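Bug #2210: token dump truncated for Beta-hexosaminidase bacterial type N-terminal domain-containing protein?
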Amino acid sequence: MIFVATALAASCVTAGAGGEVAADLLNRRIAERVVRCGDVRVLVAPPGAVAAALPIALRSRWRAPAKLGREGFAIRRVGPVTVVTAEDTRGLVYGAGWVLRHLDVEGGTARLTVRGPVDEQPTYATRLTQIGYRPKNNSYDAWTLPMFQRRIEDFALWGASGVQIIAPVSDDDATGPLFPAPPRETLAGISRITHRLGLDVALYYPELGDYDKPGAVAAEVAAFRRVLADLPYVDALYVPGGDPGHTPPARLFPLVAQQAALLRARRPTAPVYISSQGFDAAGFEAFYRELDKRPDWLTGVFVGPQTRDPLSVERARIPARYPLILYPDIAHTMHAQFPVPRWWPEFALTEGREPINPRPAAYAHIFARFAPLTAGFITYSEGVNDDFNQFLWFRLGWDPKTGTRAFAKDYARVFIGDDRAAALPAALEANWVGDPATNTTIDATLRLADQVRPAAFADWRIDSLRYRAVYDALVRRRTIAARARRAAALAAPDPERARAVLATGDGPEVAALLDRLNALAERLWQAARLQLSVKRYGASNIERGANLDRADVDLTGRAWIEAQMARGWPIPDRSRRAEGALYDDLGRPDAEPHLVRGPGFQADPQFFTTAIDGMADRTPADGWWPGELDYAETLYDSPLRLHYDGLDPRRGYSLTITYAGEDYTLPMRLVANGRIVLQEHFVRASNPSRVTVAIPREATAGGTLDLAWTRPPGMGGSGRGKQVAETWLIPDGR
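Reproduced locally. Full output below:
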């Protein structure tokens, strides 16, 4: 039987028995791109059905490829016909994706070049991404099932092995104002869509109860049974130890064992994974003890954010029978598993934690560093802000030798239709390197974005990349203007003139960029339901990608300056140079000369032992000085260190510290030179909070000083909170 999916592309793609789903998908995508098939004639079929589907004159020329494996596919030329063959629907869809990425279209006519036999299969078995249909998501909570179908088809065409869905019972609200349908209905639909493409449906199921209470375990098992009943297909189970959840391992493992039994009664081969997220040091030891018991119901461990033991440590401690699955955060820029290194405060303050964030070089490096210790990955996503990163991971999981430039070219060809767009992701990544005020790459990136001419079939992705290019250009121009305004205001002869300077606008060029940004945000809402504003598009939180609401945030520190005017004029130099102070604006990469950074991103992408430049969840409108908003921190048990050379051993010193950042309350300890305690169990009284401590002369007698801040050892969760915004090492007057 030959199946023809669409009349338009009937001569482009046909299907043999068993190839209908993949052929239909490929037909629809080609029909979006071409008017004429040209020399493109594609047959999609399992090996045993190819000959019967070929024209009679070509059947004798067909030779089935060697064993393909479950996910492998082969491409062969049989006369004028390009044959895509694989054992089942999954492999055939992967083969269809190969055709789509290699299809050239010129003047509405398709061309496909196949240089010799193609035989491919993936390197890593697990290649998933997460879909969260939940209110905090930056886009998916407003999606309909047809939108999800398109997206999951895209995932499949680019080599995903499946989709992980978050259970409707999570740490989120049960429903949301943007939901077009109830969660259980939508998740069931996603399950069917995924299964039809031959992909795996994985369930992410957090355990949120207090299981010490009588009946709590039975209630959770019953709730899990109801979730399974609502989902037509579940092929794998993933249960986090935390983020969300807080169940100790001794309680967690027996509970998941019961849930695994329920799932396997329906799907006997379903893998079951537990994560180590959220555990403190004692919890990790308990986790390892449970694994040392070799539970036979457990398949493996997934390793994600909020995990205090590095992947290499976990691999060494966990029995070899349990494979590890990486659960990388590809969505976030800060307060994250893989923060952008040395990210400038003006970017962090405006574009925020969840912007549109293509990072080809960074994630290729992260993949190469961590993937070899694993059997694959599930990328943690919050919607479509990280779209480029998602598809890069799919291709790296298929072939780790995939080059980021070659991938970007495929991405541009398939989704945008103009090869010039291939340079945009790397250019946008380079925009975030260094000071926006001096990074002229930002202007070149915007010019490049404006040169792209998307094809008629292009979707929202070109608007997404342009939004970032415009936003970066906006930050650059506003940073330059704000710094000039601040300097002029502080140098003004009187408060009245200072106020007049501060009230000056950013000018027509910035206004034009803001207009462009607003127009692109509206297009992205209409096309992809990307919620770039809380006020306009219903984003759940400004940190959830709603950076349009901060595009015009004050960058001068105007509220702080005006508050200081009431105390006198001129405002004293904050760096206190007149006193000979050694000043660090921690969190600002060009103004923290005494910070001990540690090994850096290349050696330590998760910043386990590297200092992080961070940004508080505040703005200057809250009355904070810009130097109070940014801070340095380190994670878990790693100290935050400052080092001073060239001190005068004949003088005494004091240290003034601004503690500021997120609202963490765990105590900190400050030690000089590894032995002299300057602060013990310090908890800031306010946020921000400034204190001064005397430095014993013995600490600086050798002309150097080392400072180290620590928190109580053994922390779990995110490990964050050891945050210092400013320091002044001030010599006495003698």
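Output looks complete on our side. The CA atoms of residues 291 and 318 lie 7 Å apart. Marking as cannot-reproduce; reopen if the truncation happens again.
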